[in-house]
């Protein structure tokens, strides 16, 4: 079946439920909302029983198999939830999930609906036989959190649900406070719905009500650096430092981005298509666009110079004193990121 995005799920659920749903994504709020929508529809369509199975070490896959195949003692429809936190069912689990997918797809009386939740899988895992069977026989809902550019529109839509709105600078301020933490963003928006009447939310309202609950991680730093977003990059690095992130991890992520960027620039110069490079470099969805932006800003010489600078910063992290660098590790990490954000403002080592 075609993969659904979350915004398409509501329209899909106006039809009779499929026999199998797979909700895939890492964002807790989006997963909760998608599964809640399926549960509510199941109740409305007469699925009066519900079972929840959490897969952990020693999980009894045969019991899940029997539960999905056996009808309720009272002949009721049932919703069976299978939670797969690590996305790895193992050999036996993969075989049973694949078999259940085929059986539920051919079971037209819809006495059982199986709802599987799992984190976002990498490309290799999505090519496994069990997952491809789930995708072909069931309905996959792929949950992708809004990126930094999309977050403002996402916040505006959430405010509109409670008859509130805000000007773009206010939404930008809110986005900065909640970035990387959609569940907290949802809670803060609900708080404003309780504190303020319908209508416009002002900057004063926002500053009164909303905490700074942003989460910083190296993957969002990667986006800011490659897309050339200097204010966001600086905010991300300051946040990572404030949260006590290890400089060695931040340096590793930045260096990997630079290595990938060099290979991306080489490939484009040789006439390779972006989609082909994305596969070869194993870029996650969306990252090829960031690489394109960075490749337009940097020459091959500048990219190699950045990699050389990264090697010097690594020596500093290891306790050495490379010439030309100060002893402020986070300051040098900022300089390294600036070489990608705006190479025109940096000098070669």
From TrEMBL:
The lineage of its organism: Bacteria, Pseudomonadati, Pseudomonadota, Betaproteobacteria, Burkholderiales. This is DNA polymerase III subunit delta. GO terms for cellular component: DNA polymerase III complex. The keyword Chloroplast does not apply. Belongs to the DNA polymerase HolA subunit family. Its EC number is 2.7.7.7. Residues 21-142 form the DNA polymerase III delta N-terminal domain. It catalyses: DNA(n) + a 2'-deoxyribonucleoside 5'-triphosphate = DNA(n+1) + diphosphate. It comes from Parvibium lacunae. GO terms for molecular function: DNA binding; DNA-directed DNA polymerase activity. It is an enzyme of class 2 (transferase). It comes from the Bacteria. It holds the Pfam family DNA_pol3_delta. Residues 217-318 form the DNA polymerase III delta subunit-like C-terminal domain. Keywords: DNA replication, DNA-directed DNA polymerase, Nucleotidyltransferase, Transferase. One of its GO terms (biological process) is DNA-templated DNA replication.
């Amino acid at each position: 079946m075609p993969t659904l995005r979350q915004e398409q799920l509501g329209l899909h659920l106006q039809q009779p439920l499929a026999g199998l749903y797979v909700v895939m994504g890492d964002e807790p709020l989006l997963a909760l909302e998608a599964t809640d929508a399926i549960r509510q529809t199941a109740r409305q369509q007469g699925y009066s029983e519900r079972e929840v199975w959490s897969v952990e070490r020693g999980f009894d896959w045969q019991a899940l198999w029997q539960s999905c195949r056996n009808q309720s003692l009272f002949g009721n429809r049932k919703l069976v939830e299978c939670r797969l936190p690590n996305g790895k069912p193992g050999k036996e689990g993969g075989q049973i999930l694949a078999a259940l997918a085929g059986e539920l797809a051919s079971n037209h009386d819809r006495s059982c609906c199986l709802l599987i939740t799992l984190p976002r899988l990498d490309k290799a895992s999505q090519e496994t036989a069990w997952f491809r069977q789930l995708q072909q026989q069931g309905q996959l809902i792929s949950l992708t959190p809004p990126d930094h550019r999309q977050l403002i529109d996402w916040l505006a839509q959430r405010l509109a649900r409670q008859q509130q709105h805000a000007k773009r600078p206010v939404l930008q301020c809110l986005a900065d406070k909640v970035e990387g933490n959609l569940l907290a963003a949802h809670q803060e928006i609900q708080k404003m719905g309780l504190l303020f009447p319908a209508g416009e939310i002002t900057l004063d309202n926002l500053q009164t009500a909303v905490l700074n609950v942003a989460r910083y991680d190296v993957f969002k730093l990667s986006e800011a650096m490659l897309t050339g977003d200097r204010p966001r990059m600086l905010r991300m690095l300051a946040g990572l430092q404030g949260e006590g992130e290890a400089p060695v991890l931040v340096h590793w992520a930045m260096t990997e981005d630079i290595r990938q960027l060099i290979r991306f620039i080489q490939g484009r110069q040789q006439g390779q298509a972006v989609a082909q490079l994305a596969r070869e470099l194993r870029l996650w969805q969306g990252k090829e666009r960031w690489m394109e932006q960075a490749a337009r800003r940097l020459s091959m010489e500048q990219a190699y110079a950045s990699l050389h600078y990264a090697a010097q910063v690594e020596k500093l992290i290891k306790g050495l004193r490379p010439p030309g660098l100060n002893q402020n590790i986070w300051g040098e990490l900022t300089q390294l990121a600036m070489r990608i954000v705006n190479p025109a403002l940096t000098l070669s080592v």
